[in-house]
Every structure is written in structure tokens, then in C-alpha cells.
Amino acid sequence: MSTGALKRVVVVGNGIAGLTAADTLREEGFDGELTIVGDEIHPAYSRPALSKALLLDGDTLSSHTLPPASHGARELLGVRATGLDPDRRLVTLDDGTSLPYDGVVLATGSRARRLSELPDEVTLRGLDDALALRRRLAGRPSVLVVGGGPLGMEIASGCLAAGCRVTLVSQGEPLTAQLGPHLARVFTTAARERGLTVVRTGPARVAGRAGDVHVALDDGTVLRAEVLLTAVGDIPNTEWLAGTGLVVNGAVPVDTRGLARPGVAAVGDLAAFPTPRGRRRVPLWSSAIDQGKSAARALVHGDDAPPLSFQPYFWTEQFGRTLKAVGPLPAAGEPVYVDGEPGSGPALMAWQQEDGSTTAVALDYRIPVPRLRRMTRTPA
């Protein structure tokens, strides 16, 4: 589709993927009618901050804010998209109206996966979730977190810092599946030293009734706390695309530029794009930004747009330690120390992966991300 044929673009989703796509459309010369639809009433915000700084009493409630948008789009906030007609090029909204488009960006993200329908099962996905949890933590309740991935561990860290007694339930050692055993040990050691109780189990169930919810472990043990929070993954928000033929196995597959079909881009947590390890979703903040840029360029420039050049970047702050990682994770085996040495101090490390790629990791180490990227290489 040429720039001249692109008069109206609708971006469905006001997270970082949709925001980046909108900004990039303008940067690439699109000067037509731009509309952004967001089901939250809030302007776009930093989701990673929700499980980090925002949970702490010392935060000024500004850690999640982003610079004001410069795209000049018409923003429809607090409105949900309920349908897409790719043939008629229409987006249907829950207020009964429809938005015509020449190009559309699907960026409705994902929601927290739940273990029950009980209202006392707390999840942390959006800004309202984080603010509600922050208010509850002010009373220093006992907290039970189910999920040993990065989100569960970050939440547990924030709850401990708020003065709560925290137990984390994990299938296997926390973070091992995401980071690899070496880095997982670093963080679980720090967590236990700060007072986190870790319970390893097989599949756990959330059960009970309103006002009396609990976690049942695989050995029959029952755990209770004043706040029960689960962090067990996400589900792409693709239900509104039913009947379009765009959804495969719960996600929207796209090409190397982020297009699901001509004029239809999909970015962020709902998109599955080609990677060196196969077509997959990569629900990371940096991934959403890279996808948003690539897809917007494809809408404006068509086949002349460059393909997505994606290099994974992950960062976390928890239990007094920080990590920046560029390259594929988990990292297997032991690292090569570029700077620092084994122990508790800052270190700059690298792993050579089986596929020939390199993963560079800064642990409590001040280093610009571009330098980390220069330490990596991608297999031919």
C-alpha cells in the first residue's frame, strides 16, 4: 500500500506497541487521519514500572508515566473494540460505532491468566491493578504469590519491601525457566536472604469461596494469606478478532514486517512473528517497541520497509539486585566473566548459546544497553 492510498489509520490498543506504531507512522510521513482506541481510561503508561517502583511507598506515583504523545491522534479511551471486518475495513466498538480505515494496527495486548474466577484472586496487569495492590500493601498484610517467573518475583520483592510477610509458590526453582540456573540462583539467593519464603510444588490450584480463598499444592497442603496474588502468564486479547481468519493458536501470525495481511498490522503481545527460534510471541516491552516501529513502516512504505530486526532485551529489578540481558534467554551453563568475578558483586557476563548466538548480561553493573548489544552476535 502506497503512502498516497493510506488516508485513515486506526490503532486498536493504547499500550506501548500501539503508541510506538502511532508515533512511527508520523515519523515516516503519514499525515492522514489517525485514531487510537484504548479500553483503559488512562493515557499510555509504562507497564514494567507497575511491578517495580510503583509498588513501593517511596514512589511518587509517577514512575509509570510516559512523555506526552506527539502523534496528534484522536484518542478514544475507555472504549473497547468488539470486531474487525477486514473486507469492509471497519473496526467495531462497544458503543455501537464503527471506524473505517485504510490501514489498521492490532495492538490489544494480553491479559493476566487466572487460576480461578474467584474475586479474591488478585492479578497485576494494568495500572488500576497496581494502584489497588499498593493501597492494600499499606496495611502490611501477609501475601501469597503464585508464580515463580519474573513478574511473580518482582511482585514478591515489592511486597517484601512494603513490610509484608511473603510466600511465593513456584513450579520448580523460581526464574530457572526464564533466566537459566545460574542467574536464577543469584536472584533466589537474594530473595531468601531478604526473607522470602519459597515453596516449590507441582501444579497448584486456587480454590475456596469469596472471603476464604486458598492455594492447594500438589501434595495436598493448603496455604492461605490475607492477599493471594497469581502471576502465571498471559492470554492474548484476540477474541474480538473471531471470524477474521487472522488468529492462529490464540495469536495473530505476522510476516517479517509485522503484517498479518496487506493493510493489517499486528504488534505487541498478541502477535507471533518470525524469530531465529521459530515464529512466536515475545511479550517483552522492548519487543513491543521494535514491532510497533517495523509494522508502522510497513504500512507506510509497503515492501520497501525493512524487515523487523529483533534482538531480545530483558531487564528486572528485584530483591536489591538488577539485571539487563541482551540476547536469547534462558542462559544455559556457566558464564564467561567479561568484568567482575563470581560472587555477590557487580559483573558483566556472556554466554555462548548452542545456536551460535551470544547473550550478554549486566548484573548490578552500570552499562549502556548499546554496549551490551555490541557484545552479542546472532548466528548466520
Structural class: alpha/beta
Find the count of extended strands (DSSP E, 2+ residues). Answer: 27
Helical content (DSSP H or I, runs of 4+) = 10-25%
Number of helices: 7
CATH homology-level superfamily of the largest domain: FAD/NAD(P)-binding domain
Major sheet description: 6 strands, mixed
What does this structure look like?
By secondary structure, this protein is an alpha/beta fold. The chain has three domains: 3-111 and 234-304, FAD/NAD(P)-binding domain (3-Layer(bba) Sandwich); 114-230, FAD/NAD(P)-binding domain; 320-374, no CATH class. It contains seven helices and 27 strands. The chain has helices at residues 16-27, 127-137, 150-161, 176-179, 181-193, 285-301, 369-374; strands at residues 8-12, 33-38, 74-77, 81-85, 90-93, 98-100, 103-106, 110-112, 121-122, 143-146, 166-171, 197-201, 205-209, 212-216, 222-223, 227-230, 234-236, 252-253, 259-261, 264-266, 271-275, 278-280, 313-318, 321-326, 336-339, 347-352, 358-363. The protein has a six-stranded mixed sheet with strand order 3-2-1-7-20-19, with helices on one face. A five-stranded parallel sheet has the order 9-16-10-11-12. The radius of gyration is 22 Å and the shape is globular.
